[in-house]
Each structure stands twice: as structure tokens, then as C-alpha cells.
Write a structure and sequence with these properties.
Helix content of chain A: over 70%
CATH topology of the largest domain in chain B: Methane Monooxygenase Hydroxylase, Chain G, domain 1
Radius of gyration of chain A: 18 Å
Oligomer: heterodimer
Largest sheet of chain B: none
Strand content of chain B: under 5%
CATH architecture of the largest domain in chain A: Orthogonal Bundle
Keywords (chain A): DNA-binding, Sigma factor, Transcription, Transcription regulation
Keywords (chain B): Membrane, Transmembrane, Transmembrane helix
Number of helices of chain A: 10
CATH class of the largest domain in chain B: Mainly Alpha
Helix content of chain B: over 70%
Distance between the termini of chain A: 32 Å
CATH architecture of the largest domain in chain B: Up-down Bundle
Number of helices of chain B: 14
GO molecular function (chain A): DNA binding; sigma factor activity
Strand content of chain A: under 5%
Family (chain A): Belongs to the sigma-70 factor family. ECF subfamily.
Radius of gyration of chain B: 26 Å
CATH superfamily of the largest domain in chain A: RNA polymerase sigma factor, region 2, helix turn helix motif
Structural class of chain A: mainly alpha
Organism (chain A): Candidatus Uhrbacteria bacterium RIFCSPLOWO2_02_FULL_51_9
């Protein structure tokens, strides 16, 4: 709660006085998550680095032009998403199934129970089989922790439509995975 | 949400977060330093250039926005202001009248109250400077007018039907004209909202065209059909203007819409224009050469969309639309049989395009 309030004040400073310190703090908070979001789409660390810088520069241009910021995170990811789509035509996260499966065993090392080995594989496969829009929504919601309204800003849809789509994806996954997870 | 769903959700979140947070995809210190240097050297340089002061109003409005949720503002404070005005200008009976008027149709005694309440809503949405909300309201009211045309079409007395439907069609055209004007005004007044408004207008226009076509089919009056045909033209013009705004802004690097979205919008325009012209081109007597010419323009447009040359694609879409508009049947006349005219128009329009290409 306190962090959220701090962030709101940072955004206020950014919008009213184009405060570079506030921008630097927001940069510090989001650089890693944003880089990861981009890397999963472009699958190349150097490109992801360039795009991350581009996105923050575009965000700064947005601030300087005194354009409205309704959902900061939503705006940030929307700029990232559109930059990736426009420059690299990679709307879908491009992590391979093999890479995804290599990551999955970490769950066991951390002692988190997510079912048996077969279930993990089933989950990974089911997620990888989703279409690009569904996969994007799922990762924004579960992995990046964005709220429905923020996701709506990212994908340029109404919050209700995002909610319905998320419900549909969950249902689809439950159907694919079964009740084993 | 049941326990099983909740558990599924929780575990799905865990798997995805672990997958997402894999250290192999973390930002390295060196990379972070390079990004920081690039970003902040630009930021500090840009900051020195601009020093325009921010008004007190913007400061207060921005601060208030942080602590008053948007929904509260839009759905509580804004309607509260409307109610305050209603109380200010009228009597207590006004509210009851507005409620009763909400189902009224053109020609009913309470219809003018319904229109007045709509105008009040638009006026207050305009006060909050939220052009997207104003656009949304105008679209809702335009849909209402079409709905009213459908309802009054059931009136048996032909003269009464035509008079009442005309009022609703006029109201529809008024809303569309206002949307068109908004698009023009926003370029100077609120450029930051322009693309979003244009996108919404462009997307909704398609369903208006379909609705108008359905309404026209069931109205049973050549006069109203003609008015609806005019309204369709107006919607198409507005839609074209909206898509042109989106295309131009996208071309100049605006990030509000992605290439995929622009391609979808231009693609929709193309499909709609093609559907209309297809019926005409399939007319008996239309020469094969003319058919091939239309097919070529459609293919050109598709290829240009593929190559992301949206401006060129839009020119082709307009050409196809022009063919359809020029040879479209007048209301009540059915599908035209003037094959020679169709052929001539196709030749004229396509030769203009070929000329442009050269």
C-alpha cells in the first residue's frame, strides 16, 4: 500500500514537473521486469537491451509532451508491446518449449508442490500451445502481476473483455491440463 | 470462485512466476548500465530544452486523479454533477420525467426530454475533458437512434412512420457529424486523445454500417431508405477519416496503436468495401476486364497491408469504395443492371490508381 502511494506520488511529480528523479526511481522499479517482458518476445539479449532503452525514452517523450498517464504500468507495457510488434514483429513470447521445460524443475528445488513431474510438463505444454494473445494475457496477469485494468491499457481493450478472456483461458487450460495440477 | 478453481489459479500463478523469474533471463549489471547511460543522457538533455510551467489547474487535477479512482470520478462524481444541474434548473419532477422519457420514441411527448438529458450528459462529459467518454456517449446515442428507427418502422400509418423515422435518422446523423467534427478538433485541442478516439470511431463504424443496412432492409419506405443511405455515406466518411488519422499517426511513430491494430483496421475497411463492390461486379454484363481490374486493386491493397504501407492500401480501399458508391443502386431500385456504367466507373477509378503508381 505504502509502495503504491509512493508510486502515485512519483507519477504525480513526473506528470506535473517532469521530475527526472521521479523518472529515475520509476526506471529503477521497472527496468528488470520490463527487460524480461521484452526478452521473452525478442529472444535476444542485445535487442532486448536496445528495446528496453527505447521504451524508457518513449515513456520520457510521453511525459515531456504532457500526455495523460492513467495506468502507469499499463502504459509502460503498452509502449513495450507496441515497440516490439512494430520493430521486431514478435507479438508472442518466443521462449521455446525446451527452455520452458528446463525452467520448470526449479519448482521442485524450491520445494513448492505443483504436482508430479508429468503435471509440470503438461502445464508447460498447455501454456505453450496457447495462441499469442492468450499467452500474453496470461503472462501479464500471472507472471508480471498486472491488474486487469492495467492489462486492458496494454492490449487496448476494455477491462470487461480482458476479464472474460482470462476466464476463457483458465477454462481452456483446465480442460487441457485436467484436474491433476 | 470455488476452492478447486482458486487452487488451480494459485498453482498456475506459481508455475508461471517461477518460469518467468528464471535467473537466466535477468538483466545483467553491464546491460543495465548501458541502458541507464543511454536513457538518462537523453533525459537530461531533453529536460534542459523544455521549461514551460504547469498550471495550478493541471497540478490540482493530476493530484486529485491520483486519489480519486477513475470509476468514482466517472460514475459517481460526474453523475452527481449532472444531478446537481438537474436540481438547479428544474424541479423534482424532472428526474421522474427523464426516467419516464428514456423509453420514448420520436413523436412521443417525452422524447424531447430524452434528447435534452442526453445533451446534458455530453455537456458534462465535455467538462471533464475526457474526449473518449464523450465519444462513447455519442456512439451509445447514435445506436439508440438506430434502434428507434427500427421501432418506429412498425408503425402502420406510412406518413407517421416516415415522419418519426426521419427524426431518429436526423438524430443519428447529428451524432455521427459530431464525431467527425471531434476528430478534426482533437488534432489541435487534445492530440493525446486523438488516436484512441479515432480508433474507437473506426472500429464502431463497421457495426453502424451493418446495422444501417439491416434497418434499411426492414423499414419499408423509400424516403427513409434514402435517408438511411445518406447516413451510411456519412458513417463511411467518418470511418475513413478515423482510419486515416490512425494510419497517419502510426506512420509518424505514435505508439498508441500497434501495426497489427492498424493492419486490422485498414483490412476491415478493405473487406467492407470489397463486399459491397463484389455484388455489383458479379452483375451479368460486367466485362471480364473490369472484374479483373477490381480484383487487381483488391490484391494491391492486400499486398500493401502486408507490407505495412497502410497509406497506399487506404488509397486502394477508397478507390473500391468509390466504385461501389458511384454505381450503388438508389434506394428502392434493387440491384442495378447498368453493367456498362459499372464497367466505365471501374475503368475510370482503376486508371487513376494506375496513373498514381506511375
Amino acid at each position: 500500500m505504502r509502495e503504491e502511494l509512493e508510486e502515485q506520488l512519483l507519477i504525480y511529480r513526473l506528470e506535473t514537473t517532469q521530475d527526472e528523479d521521479a523518472f529515475a526511481e520509476l526506471y529503477r522499479r521497472y527496468k528488470s521486469a520490463l527487460y524480461r517482458f521484452i526478452l521473452f518476445r525478442v529472444s535476444n539479449a542485445e535487442i532486448a537491451e536496445d528495446v528496453t532503452a527505447d521504451v524508457f525514452l518513449k515513456l520520457w517523450a510521453w511525459v515531456v509532451e504532457r500526455r495523460r498517464i492513467t495506468h502507469f504500468r499499463g502504459l509502460l507495457y503498452r509502449i513495450a508491446r507496441n515497440t516490439v510488434i512494430d520493430q521486431y514483429h514478435a507479438a508472442k513470447p518466443t521462449i521455446s518449449l525446451e527452455e520452458a521445460e528446463m525452467v520448470a524443475p526449479i519448482t521442485e528445488d524450491l520445494g513448492i508442490t505443483v504436482g508430479g513431474a508429468i503435471d509440470r510438463e503438461v502445464v508447460t505444454r498447455a501454456v505453450m500451445e496457447l495462441d499469442s494473445d492468450d499467452m500474453e494475457l496470461l503472462t501479464l496477469f500471472y507472471a508480471q502481476g498486472l491488474r486487469v485494468k492495467e492489462i486492458a491499457t496494454v492490449v487496448n481493450k476494455r477491462a470487461g473483455a480482458v476479464r472474460v478472456q482470462l476466464h476463457r483461458i483458465r477454462k481452456l487450460l483446465r480442460g487441457k491440463i485436467g484436474e491433476n495440477i | 470462485m470455488g476452492y478447486r478453481n482458486w487452487k488451480f489459479d494459485k498453482q498456475l500463478k506459481r508455475v508461471l512466476r517461477l518460469w518467468w523469474n528464471d535467473p537466466r533471463y535477468a538483466l545483467s549489471e553491464n546491460a543495465e548500465q548501458r541502458i541507464r547511460e543511454r536513457v538518462f543522457s537523453e533525459v537530461y538533455r531533453a529536460k534542459k530544452k523544455q521549461e514551460a510551467p504547469v498550471s495550478l489547474y493541471i497540478r490540482v487535477h493530476t493530484l486529485a486523479k491520483l486519489f480519486i479512482p477513475q470509476n468514482v470520478w466517472r460514475f459517481a462524481l460526474q453523475p452527481a454533477l449532472v444531478v446537481a444541474l438537474v436540481l438547479g434548473v428544474g424541479t423534482g419532477g424532472w428526474i421522474t420525467s427523464v426516467q419516464a422519457a428514456s423509453k420514448s420514441l420520436p413523436g412521443d411527448a417525452l422524447y424531447s426530454i430524452k434528447i435534452a438529458s442526453e445533451k446534458t450528459q455530453v455537456a458534462f462529459a465535455s467538462l471533464s475533458n475526457d474526449e473518449r467518454a464523450v465519444t462513447g456517449l455519442r456512439m451509445v446515442f447514435a445506436s439508440r437512434r438506430l434502434d428507434e428507427v427500427k421501432k418506429v418502422s412498425r408503425v402502420k400509418n406510412q406518413k407517421e412512420k416516415e415522419a418519426r423515422a426521419s427524426v431518429a435518422v436526423r438524430g443519428f446523423k447529428e451524432q455521427i457529424t459530431n464525431l467527425n467534427t471531434s476528430l478534426k478538433d482533437l488534432k489541435t485541442t487534445q492530440p493525446e486523445s486523438l488516436v484512441q478516439v479515432a480508433k474507437t470511431v473506426g472500429e464502431k463504424s463497421g457495426s453502424f454500417v451493418d446495422e444501417l443496412s439491416q434497418t434499411k432492409a426492414g423499414v419499408g419506405s423509400p424516403i427513409v431508405e434514402h435517408q438511411l443511405q445518406e447516413a451510411t455515406q456519412l458513417v463511411k466518411q467518418t470511418s475513413d477519416a478515423a482510419v486515416a488519422v490512425v494510419v497517419a499517426n502510426h506512420a509518424s511513430g505514435n505508439m498508441d496503436v500497434s501495426t497489427k491494430e492498424v493492419a486490422a483496421m485498414v483490412g476491415d475497411q478493405l473487406n467492407r468495401a470489397r463486399d459491397t463492390v463484389d455484388i455489383l461486379v458479379k452483375q451479368e454484363g460486367v466485362g471480364n476486364a473490369a472484374r479483373r481490374q477490381v480484383a487487381q486493386v483488391v490484391r494491391d491493397a492486400e499486398q500493401l497491408i502486408e507490407k505495412q504501407e497502410f497509406d497506399g492500401a487506404l488509397t486502394r480501399v477508397r478507390a473500391i469504395q468509390e466504385i461501389a458508391d458511384t454505381v450503388a443502386p438508389a434506394p428502392g431500385e434493387g440491384v442495378p443492371s447498368f453493367a456498362a456504367t459499372i464497367t466505365r466507373v471501374i475503368e475510370n477509378v482503376t486508371s487513376t490508381i494506375i496513373g498514381e503508381k506511375r
